[in-house]
Design a protein that fits this description.
The protein is an alpha/beta fold and 298 residues long. It contains twelve helices and five strands. The chain folds into three domains: 31 residues, no CATH class; 166 residues, no CATH class; 93 residues, Translation Initiation Factor IF3. Strands 2-1-3-5-4 form a five-stranded mixed sheet. Strand 4 and strand 5 form a beta hairpin.
């Protein structure tokens, strides 16, 4: 077998790439990505949004030979990966191009009742998004880093415009509207929203913050961290991080060390503060994560 990766990495490459990351991911939940059989259906709806509901119009039309090819291109990966033991949204990205081609053909067809219903559903989805973030953002535990009222107003205006497009205008104008909305969303997110996420929803800001508290080669504890936070801090501290998942283990560590630096989110911090044998001193906070010195109660 004359494969460059085999020459460079030998049997280990074959084991990790082909067996571990392909065969074992399909046949097991080796990395904890166990999902229901129908997991990819809502993922599909999100991947094709805002064109999602035009799939209803696609399903109602008569398919030609080329349409059947596109349909099989989309269905085979969707069904195949639905049987996979491990599931991640990126697995079905290859089905987006054929769906886009099928949906695109709807935009050059005459307006029909089914098409108008699909656009009405898109308008309703916009309104739903606005209500969800505008009134229930805290309940959903989602922080878009943008005013909920602003989201509500924008989505209601877009819903009204979609309603007008469905009733009075040609389908090609829907393509222009959706394309413009997507470009505006990407530009707004890149310039206004993502920089805020970087400060509060990644562990990068902790790199410089921790340098003021501990040496780079010291271990920092994380108590019951989310996976993204754990992996993020491990990256920025070159793996000088240890995750703890029980108060008993925290107590054991403080018996051997005078004090240890620990990071936890708000919920985990409240849990630590209720442990009777431990005391803490908060020293820094970024977003919903807090750093604190932890030591035994004297």
């Amino acid at each position: 077998m004359d494969y460059p990766g085999h020459r460079l990495n030998g049997r280990e490459f074959l084991q990790i790439f082909f067996i571990n990351h392909n065969v074992e991911r399909f046949t097991s939940t080796i990395y904890g990505h166990d999902r229901p059989f129908l997991f990819f259906l809502p993922v599909l709806l999100l991947l094709t949004f805002p064109w999602t509901f035009l799939l209803i119009s696609v399903a109602r039309r008569k398919f030609g030979r080329n349409d059947h090819i596109l349909l099989w291109w989309a269905l085979v990966p969707l069904v195949f990966f639905s049987f996979s033991g491990s599931k991640l949204p990126g697995y079905i990205l290859p089905i987006v191009p054929p769906l886009a081609l099928l949906i695109g053909k709807e935009l050059v067809q005459p307006s029909t009742l089914v098409y108008r219903v699909a656009v009405f559903m898109e308008a309703g989805a916009m309104v739903f998004i606005g209500v969800a973030f505008g009134f229930f953002g805290n309940t959903l535990n989602v922080d878009p880093h943008v005013s909920g009222t602003l989201i509500l107003v924008i989505t209601f205006v877009m819903g009204a415009m979609l309603f007008a497009l469905a009733v009075w205008f040609d389908p090609l104008l829907l393509a222009a509207f959706n394309a413009t909305a997507i470009v505006a969303l990407v530009v707004t997110a890149a310039t206004m929203v993502f920089p805020r996420f970087d400060l509060t929803d990644t562990m990068r800001p902790w790199q410089s913050a921790l340098q003021q508290l501990v040496r780079d080669d010291e271990i920092v504890l994380m108590y019951k961290p989310a996976r993204w936070a754990e992996y993020g801090l491990q990256y920025y501290r070159s793996n000088h991080v240890r995750s703890i998942f029980s108060s008993e283990e925290l107590t054991q560590i403080t018996r051997t060390d005078t004090r240890v630096l620990c990071i936890a989110d708000d919920k985990a911090l409240r849990e630590v503060s209720r442990v009777p044998t431990l005391d803490l001193e908060v020293v820094h906070a970024i977003g919903n994560y807090t750093a604190f010195w932890l030591f035994q109660v004297k």
